[in-house]
Amino acid sequence: MLSRLRSRSPIPPNAATTTTTDALSDAIKSFQDCLDSDQKARLEAIKAVPDAHAVAQFTHQLDQENAKRKSRCVAARISPLLESVQQFAGIVETFVSSNPHIAALVWGSVKLVLQIASNFTTYFDKLSALLMTIGKRCPRFQEYQKLYRDSTDLQKALCDFYSMVVRCCEQAVTVLRRAGYIQLLKAVTSSFSLDFASIMMQIDQSSKEVNETILLTEAKLDTAERQDQRAEREAAERYRLSSMLYRKERERTEADRMAQMQLEKHKIQEATKLEQFCNYNHKIAYWKARTQRHGSTGQWLTQSEDFRRWVTESGSSVFWFTGILGSGKTVMTAFVVEQLSANSSQGTGKLAYFFCQYDNETSLKASTVLRSIIRQLVDQDDQIFTANLVEVNALLDNTNDLTLLVALFSGILESLKSVVVVLDGVDECSNSEMKFLLKALRGLMSRKPSGLKLYLSGDDRITDLIISFLTPSFVVNTHTPEAASDLQELIQQLVTVRREDEDLVTGDPTLYQEIIDVLCSASKGM
What we know:
alpha/beta; Rossmann fold; 5-stranded parallel sheet; 25 helices; 5 strands; flat; disordered N terminus
């Protein structure tokens, strides 16, 4: 959605713009001052704000490096914050013309700190947990994107919030310079929390101020629109009374201004319609699943011959990943999404995913699944929305018309070169919802779109149903030697983590291996 707003011309530099970014500029300068020469050079090398694809690549790279050290997977922990920073930096880049580098430096501060901290396993684990907490405090882009341009109060509140994120990055670098700090962390677990307690309090306060400002700005919106209309009439009257000498130039300027206003209004209407079409946050379940992965677990699936063929072979195909309850299908499917997202070719292929949750009734409806997937595809390509505006409007008036929904999905697929759809937990849906969803997918596949690849995962009790509806070309079960070895490694890592965190303590060190052996033998693939 950020791309829908980037076509706007920047706000002219003025005192208000400068004031809104003061705290952010000061925080960035302070962060730069705390770096050594090598770190400053690395920060300077980060020239631009990344897109969502680059963020996915970066988090995947961090996890791959941590896998070699048998550490916790951190991508899911830090992704909400990174995506929030990327979206904010993008909108700042669009509107703050007085300092074109400020957006890249906001993103660069967070990225550099993660790169530095990743060299210290214990510290990185604690820092990633802190950043996960901050990510939960971040403002939702969907809530402020339509309000940002016209509210200096909101601009300042957001800049103040992200200035505290940069201050946190500064603190993260500063404490690492203390002599023996890593050793202290291992000995005194509370030392880390104490070092960041003050900053976290300020982040909490800034988060509340942003939310309050968003509500206040929304309340003022109707009044502001009426005032704008009156101002336009007055400006038009002054224009009619202006001298003939400048009329042609003013006509051109006025036409440009009106055209720009119409464009902005149109894009805001698009964003509003998409929120009405689907406001389900598909990322929450994905992030949750990613936090449960450790080290290199799950790589056996993406390195399997069947998976590689499914990804690389031309044409449409279905991949069915199955296993017993508790065998790690959801966690591994989250890694599949991470892998596909990091390796996808921007501009050619589209990726959409959905995780059904047994404790979230909304996620178990076929209409929610389909709407979410369509919304994700539209968000990746502005032209899709424009080309299917009539169908989207029809679905806003007929929210329960699943036939229209499938027709829209089919039309979108025909306009795209390559689409990968990942669905997890389809067996969690009721029998009727699951069958409708599978029927819809079968209808899409029957049209033989050249580039549609489906990945589904679920309990092996519905394998026959999946085969009858979709005839998957590839079937992989968690009951394999590779999966068993993967499970043993996971248990080993979990016991090690519990031991390091002192959640598991024994008087006899030899008992740790015995605990691992017992858990492995009793797990039975779960």
